Amino acid sequence: MHFLRSLLRKSPPNRFVLAAALTLLAPCAAQAEARLVIEADTGKVLEAENATMPWYPASVTKMMTAYVTLKAVKDGKITLDTLVTVSPVASSQSPSKMGFKPGTQVTVDNALKMMW
């Protein structure tokens, strides 16, 4: 709730902010196989169900990976032609569909395309 109040104070009133605020305030039943609710100010876990189970990366994880990678390209830290080496840990993760052996190199461009 503190985050929401802060957001509303800092943002000019517009339909997007109001819609976001109403969405956050609207009660809804959570239906998920895993759940973790944390109090932002203290870090106290308020609710947890299957919170430590390993899960495959979700779409938000993929989007953040793409964002961080493309920001590094934009900042000139890497290029789309930069080679990325597949590590033993990466190659052992499920569901690994590409079948790369450790030590295989792919370009950042190809790695981003394969992620989706």
Explain what you see.
This protein has 116 residues and is α+β, with helices and mostly antiparallel strands. It contains five helices and four strands, in the order ααββαβαβα. The longest helix has 16 residues, at 59-74. The protein is extended and about 45 Å long.
List the uncertain runs: none
* Order of strands, widest sheet: 1-2
Query: Termini, distance in Å?
Result: 34 Å
Strand content: 5-15%
H/E topology pattern = HHEEHEHEH
Shape: extended
Largest β sheet strand count, sense and barrel closure: 2 strands, antiparallel
Secondary-structure content class = alpha+beta
How confident is the prediction overall: mean pLDDT?
79
How much is the radius of gyration in Å?
Answer: 19 Å
The number of helices is 5
Estimate percent helicity: 40-55%
- The number of distinct β-strands equals 4
Please describe the structure with a list of short key phrases separated by commas or semicolons:
two-stranded antiparallel ribbon; extended
